[in-house]
What we know:
This protein has 13 helices and 18 strands. It is α/β, with parallel strands linked by helices. The protein has a domain of 210 residues: FAD/NAD(P)-binding domain (3-Layer(bba) Sandwich). Helix 1 packs parallel to helix 10. The two termini are 25 Å apart. The mean pLDDT is 93. Bound molecules: flavin-adenine dinucleotide. The site of flavin-adenine dinucleotide has 33 residues, from helix 1, strand 2, strand 3, strand 12 and helix 9.
Amino acid sequence: MRVLICGGGIAGLTLAYWLRRRGIEPVVVERAPHGRLGGYGIDFFGTGHDIAARMGIVDRLTPHRLPVDSVDFVDASGRAGARLTTALLDKIIRGPHLPLMHTTLEGVLLEAIEAEVEVRFGETITAVRDLDTAVEVDLARGGTQRFDLLVGADGIHSRTRELVFGPEARFARHLGCRLASYPVTDRYGWGRVRAHYTEPGRQSVVYPTGEAGTLMALFLFRSAHGGRVPRAERLDLLRSTFHGMGWITASLLADAPASESVFMDTMAQIVLPAWHRGRVALVGDACGCMTMVSAQGVSMAMAGAYVLAEALEEEAGHVRAFARYQGRMRAEVTRRQRNALLFARTLVPGTRAGLVAQGLANRLIMREAFAPLLRRQFGARSILPPRTADPGKD
Length: 394
Ligand SMILES: Cc1cc2nc3c(=O)[nH]c(=O)nc-3n(C[C@H](O)[C@H](O)[C@H](O)COP(=O)(O)OP(=O)(O)OC[C@H]3O[C@@H](n4cnc5c(N)ncnc54)[C@H](O)[C@@H]3O)c2cc1C
């Protein structure tokens, strides 16, 4: 069986790995011209870490652990009002936890498959026709080709979803917030801290990348509308939204790269009634984006890929396999989306009163007594049954 995977991100590369291990031939098309650069930090734990361990890649990830010992919620002078330490985080997660750059994980996943899987960079699909016995796709550069199945692993703004299921507006749930991020020079002698500073309607965040002299700046701000901001307009939007903000925000904005290099997206969840149609299925953010506030997007993308590959090997035919995959994953994703929705409402308070309430709540909740509650909120336990005989086990 040959499966075309559109999107060489976390979900697509993990799926390629597990399909290959299960005797199915994947081909990956990735829009970006090469492995992606830049990116943002992620907390990697629970199901995602479990799958990485089954792939035998944890040792390659660990040296890239971001040097962060605490998450501090600071005032304008930089003093921490509330602090989530690694020690408390360990008690919440009760398992391995790796803060990483998203691109580090992508890079290691790519290394794990590139000798065995065809990955076509700078390529995408432009049309899809389900022929009943095969799926025919038009590729931007590679002409028309047939595969047994097509899997859209092309993220929150999935082209596969648009071509097969309909326009994004039908499935996107905008959470009233935008985010932006870029690397900046460390002119502060920054320590092993991820710091958040919030004013009504806007929040700036800084954390170390692990690369000497480089920090990541992240900006979150309230926005009534979703939709894409053209690259050329991103920096102007950030500068006007964060104008006059305290702490080191002005200096972070002064150090911004060219507007075209700023990562900016709307914070939205994707909710689809069905994750498959005919010979096409979706995996990861394309069908179940939960947003960054869930801290579970990578885990669910990897879990979806793992479960889909397993179902395709074990079930008789793709119809049963897709149904089993959706049956196993959708409830997990829906629950995390619900949790993230509640959390997102309080992420960037719109008023001074909201800000005071957030400060009090942060100070109250960041204690050991609340570890079980936070563990449930972030789904720290792996959703996979314990390993027995994984085909990819080292
Ligand atoms: C700022 C931020 C912080 C986050 N923090 C966390 C965290 O702490 N923990 C966590 O678990 N998750 C976190 N997430 C969420 C997580 O990054 C995503 O849920 C996860 O990356 C989803 O993986 P994916 O493979 O589905 O999508 P992506 O990682 O977005 O990959 C999609 C891939 O498809 C490619 N592509 C797109 N369109 C096309 C096309 N038309 N043709 C071909 N290729 C295409 C893209 O170039 C990309 O390589 C965070 C997200 C953000 C934005």
